[in-house]
Amino acid sequence: MALARPILIVDDDRALRETLAEQLRAEGEFEPHAAESLAAAEAALGGGNARFDAILLDVGLPDGDGRDFTRTIRQKGVKVPIIMLTGADTEADTIRGLDSGANDYIVKPFRLGELLARLRRHLAIFDNSDDAVFSIGPYTFRPAAKLLLEAKRNRKIRLTEKEAAILKFLYRAEGKPVPRQVLLNEVWGYNAGVTTHTLETHIYRLRQKVEPDPGNARLLVTESGGYRLNAQWTPEPTGG
């Protein structure tokens, strides 16, 4: 089963915020986080290693307009899908929302099923776009291009489709160990002809590409029954 994806809900209506969070969590595929204002949203987006796969954003908030906020965070490099939630349903409102950089615009009250369908669609599009970029150790990972970039050494590492899928799924686990069978099912599907040996071979080849010392893995770590991606690890600088 895929790991829950973190979603940021920004709305000053406490009842709606809590209900939406509860319903999203009940689906099992999302891990909602709530913010009651733009200031709280900005703190959530900028604090520490906070990472969200999508943002559900109210237009009218006590400390500002969600459309202006969207424009600002887009300029700062936030590329994840943003779905605006609003009571304003005129064509001009929709155009203004989309022009600000939002991916979609849903009028309140809305059906949860419609919101989920649109959210899943935008996540799928984003995951396969060139905008999906992740930091893994000393590398910048572009899953769509199946590419790792190491800026310090001006190096490009080409990945196979399966190698990119393994890294992407382990990254989504946010440092938690993933059992071998779960990784097999997610990357290869429920294919009876694929064994853990196939996965181990791919892990071995990945380590040859990404680990400074493949025999002493620090990035792609073996755990009891599975693997863990230590995405925060970076090699110690060498003397020169």
Automatic annotation (TrEMBL):
Cellular component GO terms held in the UniProt record: cytosol; protein-DNA complex
PTM sites of type 4-aspartylphosphate: D58
Residue ranges of domain OmpR/PhoB-type in the record: 131-231
DNA-binding region in chain numbering: 131-231
InterPro entries from the UniProt entry: OmpR/PhoB-type_DNA-bd, Sig_transdc_resp-reg_receiver, WalR-like
Residue ranges occupied by any Response regulatory domain in the UniProt entry: 6-123
Protein name: Response regulator transcription factor
Protein's organism: Elioraea tepida
Lineage: Bacteria, Pseudomonadati, Pseudomonadota, Alphaproteobacteria, Acetobacterales
